[in-house]
């Protein structure tokens, strides 16, 4: 029988490493979510930040250099970058503390970087993808389908 007592310790170690990396990132340039369909970028904390079907994360400077425009004509502030980073850490913490001993396995669509929960329409049904725990999916930069996390 496999020893499962080390899994929570490994998860805690992984989360600690993620926290250190998150705080080491510079707070001067906000990571924005670029909606590649519309050519608009969204600041952390906004309604569409990480929530559109097509898009990717990049620095605000890089987004502007590539010709994307700020949503509502409003650029991001350094304080929003820190807030966005804090929200990401808080989400990781919540998913780790609410995780059951057997963590929820999700299906990550590797093309769109969206993950699907068990029992949903696209769980294991997209052309390209892989299975992972929800914590791994979030840590690797994927977002939940329809903005809803798995229970």
Blueprint (SSEs and pairs):
Layout: H1 6-24, E1 31-35, E2 40-42, E3 56-59, H2 60-65, E4 69-70, H3 78-97, E5 105-109, E6 114-116, E7 130-133, H4 134-139, E8 143-144
Parallel strand pairs: 2-4, 6-8
Antiparallel strand pairs: 1-2, 1-3, 5-6, 5-7
Separation of the first and last Cα atoms: 28 Å
Radius of gyration: 17 Å
Largest beta sheet: what is the strand line-up? 3-1-2-4
Report the order of strands and helices: HEEEHEHEEEHE
Based on CA inertia axes, which overall geometry fits?
A: globular
Low-confidence stretches: 23-29
Beta-strand proportion: 15-25%
**DSSP helical segment count:** 4
How would you characterize this protein structure?
The protein has 151 residues and is α/β, with parallel strands linked by helices. It contains 4 helices and 8 strands. The strands form 2 sheets. A 4-stranded mixed beta sheet has the order 3-1-2-4. Strands 7-5-6-8 form a 4-stranded mixed beta sheet. Helix 1 (6-24) runs antiparallel to helix 3. The longest helix has 20 residues, at 78-97. The model is unreliable at 23-29 (pLDDT under 50).
Main features:
151 residues, alpha/beta, 4-stranded mixed sheet, 4 helices, 8 strands, 34% helix
Entry summary:
Helix 1 runs antiparallel to helix 3. The strands form two sheets. A four-stranded mixed beta sheet has the order 3-1-2-4. Strands 7-5-6-8 form a four-stranded mixed beta sheet. The protein has 151 residues and is an alpha/beta fold.
């Amino acid at each position: 029988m496999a020893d499962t007592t080390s899994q929570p310790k490994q998860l805690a170690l992984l989360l600690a490493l993620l926290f250190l990396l998150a705080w080491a990132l510079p707070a001067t340039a906000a990571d924005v979510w670029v909606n590649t369909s519309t050519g608009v970028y969204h600041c952390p904390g906004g309604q569409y930040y990480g929530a559109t079907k097509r898009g990717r994360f990049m620095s605000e400077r890089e987004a502007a250099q590539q010709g994307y425009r700020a949503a509502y004509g409003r650029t991001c502030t350094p304080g929003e970058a820190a807030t966005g980073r804090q929200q990401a850490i808080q989400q990781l913490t919540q998913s780790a503390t609410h995780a059951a001993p057997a963590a929820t396995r999700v299906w990550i669509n590797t093309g769109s970087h969206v993950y699907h929960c068990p029992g949903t329409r696209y769980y294991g049904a997209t052309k390209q993808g892989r299975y992972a725990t929800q914590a791994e999916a979030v840590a690797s930069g994927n977002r939940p389908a329809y903005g809803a996390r798995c229970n």
